[in-house]
Amino acid sequence: LYVFVPFRATPGRETALRDALTSIVAPTRAEPGCVEMNVYQGQGEDAVFYVHSVWKSSADFDLHATLAAHA
């Protein structure tokens, strides 16, 4: 399962959003079923970020979505 999610920071909050997103990379990669997880920042769009993740199954992603670290 491939998941691609865009995020747009509120003006002035770009650093906070980047920090929040990058802080969940390592814990997410350690979750069962996570094959890959990366955060990207839009080129020329400092307020736009993308999270791309790959999961072994929909069930693995569904479990990921329920975890408190990502709420």
* Amount of helix: 25-40%
Low-confidence stretches: none
Spatially, the strands of the biggest sheet line up as: 1-3-2
List SSEs in N-to-C order.
Answer: EHHEEH
Measured between the Cα atoms of the first and last residue, the distance is 21 Å
Q: What percent of residues are in strands?
A: 35-45%
Structural class: alpha+beta
Count of beta strands: 3
Would you tell me the overall average pLDDT? 93
Using the alpha-carbon principal axes, give the shape. Answer: elongated
Number of helices: 3
Radius of gyration: 12 Å
Main pleated-sheet profile:
3 strands, antiparallel
Structure in words:
Strand 2 and strand 3 (45-55) form a beta hairpin. The chain has 71 residues and is an alpha+beta fold. The relative contact order is 0.28. It is elongated and about 35 Å long. It has 3 helices and 3 strands, in the order E-H-H-E-E-H. A 3-stranded antiparallel sheet has the order 1-3-2. 34% of the residues lie in helices and 38% in strands.
What does this entry show, briefly?
With 71 residues, the chain is of the alpha+beta class. The protein is built from three helices and three strands, in the order βααββα.
Main features:
3 strands, 71 residues, 3-stranded antiparallel β-sheet, 34% helix, alpha+beta, 38% strand
Helix and strand arrangement:
Blueprint lengths: L1 E7 L5 H10 L1 H5 L4 E9 L2 E11 L2 H9 L5
Antiparallel strand pairs: 1-3, 2-3
